[in-house]
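ok so for the tutorial part 2 we go from a plain amino acid sequence to predicted structure tokens. step 1 is just haveing the sequence, like this:
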Amino acid sequence: MARTIASEQLSEDEKVSFIQTNLLKWYKTSGRRFYWRKKGLSQYQYIIAEVLLQRTKAETIAKFYPLFIIEFPNWLSLANADLKSIEIFLKPIGLYTQRALRLQNLANEMVKRNGRLPRDRKDLESIPFMGQYIANAVELVIFNEPSPLVDVNMARVIERFFGSRKMADIRYDPYLQSLAYKIVKHDKTKHINWAILDFAALICKSKSPSCEKCLLSPNCFFYNNINYGSS
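step 2 — the prediction. this is what the tokens look like for a chain of 231 residues:
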């Protein structure tokens, strides 16, 4: 069991520091580059990207996103659009009926608010379609606060590296949420979030993860105790 020794010798804080340092190095050379990660976009453009990314691969949205922004350049244009036309436009990326209704409800609310987003978390989550993930994204990308983009992909990386969560719903698991906040509490919080999501897509994949070329493997719970536990 020599593979487990390095991981077991590290405290949780040391493992957090290890994953932060190594993923930031990896992201600098291997991270993905998407339009919505650029500086200088409007709040609308940032939020629309996060909404479209829900349950859809980033590479799919990368091709679709610029077209959507041209067709619906702001909250007002989206609020005033015919719902059927939004559905038709969204059809190529799937879930178009559900997405169209939610997007227009969100647009209507933002028009009422004159495009202003509240910093109060309870008020923020009261906006249609502003669940935990989108609210975290707003805090991260718009307010520059260390909020984690915890979806199934980030959860997978964290659980494989640190160990499994207890609750089925990632939104309410205190162990997973606490670790996620610790990891992204950094002066490069956006880059760490994006690094984890990219690492999940390219290395720590759901099926057939590339453990042998993973820079986290020396201290990874999955690699040391599950993936090679029988060797």
